[in-house]
Amino acid sequence: MSSTTLSIEGMRCSGCAENVERALRDVPGVASVVVDLDHGTAVIEGGGEPQNLVSAVKTAGYAASIVPDVQQNPSIV
């Protein structure tokens, strides 16, 4: 199962994190979502297309970007 990590800007409270989680769970192919309010990230497991995940977060009212997979791109570190 693939995993995608998003950096999310604009979450200020647990309600914001719940809104982001709900938006991501609605994306076809998503199996699970873990939103970390303190770090401003979300880890999504499943077959959701990364751009669809970003779009879902933006539609919910937050800025989002894909965090590169360090294991596949060690030069990023």
TrEMBL record:
Pfam family, one: HMA
GO molecular function, one term: metal ion binding
Keywords: Metal-binding
SUPFAM superfamilies noted in UniProt: HMA, heavy metal-associated domain (SSF55008)
InterPro entries: Heavy-metal-associated_CS, HMA_dom, HMA_dom_sf
Domain HMA: 2-65
Domain of life: Bacteria
UniProt protein name: Heavy metal transport/detoxification protein
Source taxonomy: Bacteria, Pseudomonadati, Pseudomonadota, Alphaproteobacteria, environmental samples
